[in-house]
Amino acid sequence: MATPEENRAALANVFTTALAIAPDRVVDALAYNAIAEWDSTAHMLLVSELEGAFNVMLDTDDIIDLSSVAKAKEILSKHGVAFA
Where are the domains of the chain? Predict the structure, then answer.
């Protein structure tokens, strides 16, 4: 099982890869549609990357609720991924 630090690093990597943004832009406050890179297409790529990186299957409600980095942590926590 990954440590919270490893999970935080993996989450940052997923966001930087899916959204093609610099790692320093991945902060809890980063929100859907707040930056041009996070559009509907990138959102679906992000969901796919999250599922692969954390070996989870997000349901429709989770996908709709995925509105920020902080919310991603909250959703993944429900699936047993620790960030703290």
Answer: 4-78
